[in-house]
């Protein structure tokens, strides 16, 4: 596959932002591709506990071990190196939240609880912040519209919006600490605050117009326990810092801030962000999404847990992350060079960021 060719493919131009039409809405579904995606991957569609658990446990162990080292060592350079290692490992562990939003509840017994205990609650990003939200991003009639919690037409916005979008992620960890330690407990006695926090500050969403609906049934029960765990952890962390010093908490916040920045940069290139609000076909959604397969360098670091195959994920949302590379190989071989499938593959992070930056330049 020639990933470089996909950027300037004549049949898939980047539309001029000054034009009124949304080019995505004009793309019909490639039924052969959609059918092949399902038929060629049935035998690799099951989540394998023997892969999920070791991967999560190893990532968490390295992440927390390196974080402890960054806190304890006296040598500044070594502390920074350990902090970076911790960020990368915890980033991988954290992104299993994406898998939790798609896998069947019975596919990996205990994995949701284990992930929340190891990662979600300590990092103050419990799984309810993504579950029930991310699936709306995959809804056929919501993707790319104002009802999509995870979509902004970034390519059609001003150039300054890109660095602002990326850098605001640095503020996420202290904001989450305030949310769990202060706002959630206060919300138990101030109902309007509880409603505001739930609607506006309880989802990993980037669409400022998104308002989250009140949880119901078993999901509400799960939210209660996860919120309780996060609040108890956040209050304990602040209490310990008041008693024994702020260094561990501040280093931890810096590590998670870098992790959040990595994820925000990944988000910038997860899609082309060229839709201005119209409903799109499945094929259009695929072409507005991005694969960065091998031989792209370092994509496993900045887009781990299968997210280097984000466009393929939009074709097969329930496909476990460990099967995406094989699914990509099969589809590429079956559909061939020049196919619709190939057009969603790109050579790396830098070309994608440059493409997005060029798109914003056309909006001035």
UniProtKB/TrEMBL annotation:
Keyword vocabulary terms for this entry: Membrane, Transmembrane, Transmembrane helix
By its UniProt entry, which Pfam families does this protein fall under?
FA_desaturase
The protein's matches in InterPro entries, at most eight in alphabetical order, are given as: FA_desaturase_dom
Output this protein's name: Fatty acid desaturase family protein
Q: Where are the transmembrane segments?
A: 51-71, 77-97, 109-130, 160-178
Q: What is the lineage of its organism?
A: Bacteria, Pseudomonadati, Pseudomonadota, Alphaproteobacteria, Sphingomonadales
Fatty acid desaturase domain: residues covered: 78-337
């Amino acid at each position: 596959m020639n990933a470089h060719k996909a950027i300037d493919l004549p049949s898939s131009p980047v539309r001029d932002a000054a034009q009124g039409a949304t080019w995505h809405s004009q793309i019909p579904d490639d039924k052969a591709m959609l059918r092949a995606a399902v038929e060629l991957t049935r035998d690799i569609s099951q989540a394998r506990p023997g892969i999920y658990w070791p991967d999560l446990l190893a990532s968490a162990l390295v992440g927390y071990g390196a974080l402890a080292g960054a806190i304890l060592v006296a040598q500044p350079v070594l502390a920074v190196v350990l902090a970076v290692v911790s960020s990368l490992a915890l980033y991988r562990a954290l992104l299993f939240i994406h898998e939790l939003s798609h896998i069947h509840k019975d596919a990996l017994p205990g994995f949701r609880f284990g992930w929340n205990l190891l990662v979600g609650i300590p990092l103050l990003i419990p799984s309810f912040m993504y579950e029930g939200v991310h699936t709306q991003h995959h809804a056929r009639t919501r993707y790319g519209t104002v009802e999509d919690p995870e979509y902004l037409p970034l390519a059609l916005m001003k150039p300054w919006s890109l660095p602002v979008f990326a850098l605001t992620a640095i503020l996420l960890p202290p904001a989450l600490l305030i949310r769990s330690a202060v706002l959630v407990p206060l919300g138990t006695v101030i109902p309007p605050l509880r409603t505001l926090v739930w609607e506006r500050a309880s989802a990993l969403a980037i669409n400022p117009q998104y308002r989250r609906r009140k949880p119901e049934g078993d999901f509400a029960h799960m939210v209660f326990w996860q919120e309780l765990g996060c609040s108890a952890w956040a209050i304990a962390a602040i209490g310990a810092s008041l008693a024994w010093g702020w260094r561990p908490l501040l280093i931890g916040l810096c590590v998670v801030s870098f992790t959040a920045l990595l994820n925000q940069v990944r988000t910038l290139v997860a899609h082309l962000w060229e839709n201005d609000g119209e409903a799109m076909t499945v094929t259009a959604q695929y072409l507005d999404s991005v694969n960065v397969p091998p031989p792209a360098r370092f994509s496993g670091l900045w887009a781990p847990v299968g997210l280097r195959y984000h466009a393929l994920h939009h074709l097969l949302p329930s496909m476990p992350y460990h099967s995406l590379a094989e699914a990509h190989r099969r589809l590429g071989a079956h559909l061939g060079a020049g196919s619709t499938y190939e057009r969603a593959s790109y050579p790396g992070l830098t070309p994608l960021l440059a493409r997005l930056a060029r798109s914003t330049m056309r909006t001035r």
